[in-house]
């Protein structure tokens, strides 16, 4: 099948590469000319495991191409995917500017039937707005052409995006026309072989399903962070509690890891957008407001622990930071807890020496030129002369370091473990002062 995809970001590129991998002819479109030029040279603008090989293979086979040319994009295929960003607006609602811009781009150029498939995360009712936009533009052109707008939200996780797309838990298709559902069944058949995971529903339910999934996962995390804070006060270890409840299959082990808060381009923005949707619908989303509030507070927990350890005197201190990306296996730093921590440390007059296995270029783009940030090529180098180590992202590389070497490089053996990677008793035995998240009274072992 021929497919056009607007948006060469995480979702667009992964969708395009995977669809091309199974034989489709994909044209990728972006308004960012530099991004398109890089992709044409074979350079990926994002880090995502396995994606570079897929794109290179598809490009060599002539099954994927990149353009900024809207005429070419609309002419290329009947199936037109929207995978552009939907960043938060000032009031927390999703900004649909880019989505509606693509709708207009298509409507201004289409000369026959088009199936517009929205993959961006958008509030309930957006498919109707896209439909309305296309209809208005066609009317202004004096044309009456057949088209459909459907919802096909994406559930991939960064860092495992290719795997998630290739082996989806479910494929949600929100549409009202059987021929549109049939087109999606055909397109997704290679990813849907052994078990039928394609669920067809009405567009509004599909749009809400996406927010419901992210909000439920965010709720699990904030729930655990709430309990971690309680565990600290009552002298319990949240890691034991986690294993204790995860063993109940009704609860499960997934997404109950406490930590220094959830980040990324989606949970924070999608929870806020859903709260906004509820407000607009006259409903007070109390659980969601709590989920968001608990997370905002949790992202400051590491800073509070560091500040309290140093008696509030952080000016002139240096903190080593392991992990800048919002989670492992990505270079994405959007809403990353590392940023909340670094910005709070800088505001308090402290300096940061940081290392991340892949997000160094992104950190340089965001914070390059600051004299209170040193980006170190190696995790051990980040420790040199630092007053303490804070671990923010659970990269494998940080799980089992040579603690003797860590101790030798730090000015004082103090670790703030924002992901509960280490065993407090072991670190105490090695002579470290250890702070985790929710690990007993004061979450401290010394
Ligand atoms: N990042 C993720 O893990 C996931 C994201 N989503 C959703 O998918 C959507 C896209 O997210 P990302 O891929 O992360 O965004 P991104 O920010 O990585 O990429 C978006 C791309 O769209 C391009 N763009 C903007 N306007 C355009 C236009 N008019 N025509 C063509 N290209 C245009 C931008 O230049 C950019 O390259 C969002 O709604 C997001 O919430 C859904 C599931 C997972
Ligand atoms: O809509 C989206 O964009 C995507 O959002 C999330 O994916 P992603 O943000 O890439 O990453 P996650 O693995 O979900 O992690 C999100 C944040 O939660 C944190 N987290 C995750 C799990 C956990 O137990 N505890 C925890 O603090 C992570 O550290 C990270 O900061 C969802 O998992 C995807 O299904 C969804 O498609």
UniProtKB/TrEMBL annotation:
<feature type="binding site">
    <location>
        <position position="334"/>
    </location>
    <ligand>
        <name>NAD(+)</name>
    </ligand>
</feature>
<dbReference type="Pfam" id="PF00984">
    <property type="entry name" value="UDPG_MGDP_dh"/>
</dbReference>
<dbReference type="InterPro" id="IPR001732">
    <property type="entry name" value="UDP-Glc/GDP-Man_DH_N"/>
</dbReference>
<dbReference type="InterPro" id="IPR014027">
    <property type="entry name" value="UDP-Glc/GDP-Man_DH_C"/>
</dbReference>
<dbReference type="GO" id="GO:0051287">
    <property type="term" value="F:NAD binding"/>
</dbReference>
<feature type="binding site">
    <location>
        <begin position="155"/>
        <end position="158"/>
    </location>
    <ligand>
        <name>substrate</name>
    </ligand>
</feature>
<feature type="binding site">
    <location>
        <position position="210"/>
    </location>
    <ligand>
        <name>substrate</name>
    </ligand>
</feature>
<feature type="binding site">
    <location>
        <position position="269"/>
    </location>
    <ligand>
        <name>NAD(+)</name>
    </ligand>
</feature>
<dbReference type="InterPro" id="IPR028357">
    <property type="entry name" value="UDPglc_DH_bac"/>
</dbReference>
<feature type="binding site">
    <location>
        <position position="263"/>
    </location>
    <ligand>
        <name>substrate</name>
    </ligand>
</feature>
<dbReference type="GO" id="GO:0000271">
    <property type="term" value="P:polysaccharide biosynthetic process"/>
</dbReference>
<keyword id="KW-0560">Oxidoreductase</keyword>
<feature type="binding site">
    <location>
        <position position="327"/>
    </location>
    <ligand>
        <name>substrate</name>
    </ligand>
</feature>
<dbReference type="InterPro" id="IPR036220">
    <property type="entry name" value="UDP-Glc/GDP-Man_DH_C_sf"/>
</dbReference>
<comment type="similarity">
    <text>Belongs to the UDP-glucose/GDP-mannose dehydrogenase family.</text>
</comment>
<dbReference type="InterPro" id="IPR036291">
    <property type="entry name" value="NAD(P)-bd_dom_sf"/>
</dbReference>
<comment type="pathway">
    <text>Nucleotide-sugar biosynthesis; UDP-alpha-D-glucuronate biosynthesis; UDP-alpha-D-glucuronate from UDP-alpha-D-glucose: step 1/1.</text>
</comment>
<feature type="binding site">
    <location>
        <position position="30"/>
    </location>
    <ligand>
        <name>NAD(+)</name>
    </ligand>
</feature>
<dbReference type="InterPro" id="IPR008927">
    <property type="entry name" value="6-PGluconate_DH-like_C_sf"/>
</dbReference>
<feature type="binding site">
    <location>
        <begin position="255"/>
        <end position="259"/>
    </location>
    <ligand>
        <name>substrate</name>
    </ligand>
</feature>
<dbReference type="GO" id="GO:0006065">
    <property type="term" value="P:UDP-glucuronate biosynthetic process"/>
</dbReference>
<feature type="binding site">
    <location>
        <position position="86"/>
    </location>
    <ligand>
        <name>NAD(+)</name>
    </ligand>
</feature>
<feature type="binding site">
    <location>
        <position position="35"/>
    </location>
    <ligand>
        <name>NAD(+)</name>
    </ligand>
</feature>
<keyword id="KW-0520">NAD</keyword>
<dbReference type="Pfam" id="PF03720">
    <property type="entry name" value="UDPG_MGDP_dh_C"/>
</dbReference>
<feature type="binding site">
    <location>
        <position position="158"/>
    </location>
    <ligand>
        <name>NAD(+)</name>
    </ligand>
</feature>
<dbReference type="Pfam" id="PF03721">
    <property type="entry name" value="UDPG_MGDP_dh_N"/>
</dbReference>
<feature type="active site" description="Nucleophile">
    <location>
        <position position="266"/>
    </location>
</feature>
<dbReference type="GO" id="GO:0003979">
    <property type="term" value="F:UDP-glucose 6-dehydrogenase activity"/>
</dbReference>
<dbReference type="InterPro" id="IPR014026">
    <property type="entry name" value="UDP-Glc/GDP-Man_DH_dimer"/>
</dbReference>
<dbReference type="InterPro" id="IPR017476">
    <property type="entry name" value="UDP-Glc/GDP-Man"/>
</dbReference>
<comment type="function">
    <text>Catalyzes the conversion of UDP-glucose into UDP-glucuronate, one of the precursors of teichuronic acid.</text>
</comment>
<protein>
    <recommendedName>
        <fullName>UDP-glucose 6-dehydrogenase</fullName>
        <ecNumber>1.1.1.22</ecNumber>
    </recommendedName>
</protein>
<feature type="binding site">
    <location>
        <position position="121"/>
    </location>
    <ligand>
        <name>NAD(+)</name>
    </ligand>
</feature>
<feature type="domain" description="UDP-glucose/GDP-mannose dehydrogenase C-terminal">
    <location>
        <begin position="320"/>
        <end position="424"/>
    </location>
</feature>
